[in-house]
Amino acid sequence: KRVEETEEIIMRLRFLSPRDFTKTDPIDLGALVEVDIDGESQTLFIVPMGGGMAVKVRGVDVRLVTPASPVGQALMGKLAGEGFELRSKDRLREYEIVAVR
Q1: Mind listing the pLDDT tens digit for each residue in 26-56?
Q2: Which of 35, 84, 42, 76 is nearest to 61 (CA)?
Q3: Which of 91, 98, 94, 44 lies closest to 69 in space, CA to CA?
Q4: E strand segments, 1-101
Q5: Roughly how many angstroms between the first and final C-alpha of the chain, as a whole number?
Q6: For the residues 43-70, what does the mean pLDDT come to?
């Protein structure tokens, strides 16, 4: 069943139309977001489904995040340069949005 779910996610992601985000575009579906989390860089891809999965793209680890997840909810509508705090596993983490593409 997990294999079938993963295949469906891959198929749907192939039809996700990527777009270029400018400095004034708020984060939305299809955004590739570089964040600094407590001093560590991470790349997140905002997708409609498949959150939690990680893929490697051109040597870069990319974590898939849905708008329904806590991180996705906090990111949606924000711009590069903004930050926020989010509690994760009984720990308050600081996020800074470095870039949105």
Answers
A1: 999 999 999 999 999 999 999 888 888 888 8
A2: 42
A3: 44
A4: 32-37, 40-46, 54-57, 60-65, 83-88, 91-100
A5: 33
A6: 91
Distance CA 7, CA 30 (A): 19
Residue 66 · residue 51 · CB < 8 Å: yes
CA 10/CA 34 separation, integer angstroms: 22
**Average pLDDT of the segment spanning 47-76:** 92
Are 30 and 16 within 8 A, CB to CB?
yes
CA dist., res. 65 & res. 41, Å (int): 15
Could you tell me if 62 and 45 are in contact, meaning their C-beta atoms sit under 8 angstroms apart? yes
What band does 81 get if pLDDT is binned at 50, 70 and 90? very high
Nearest to 4 by CA among 60, 63, 12, 94: 12
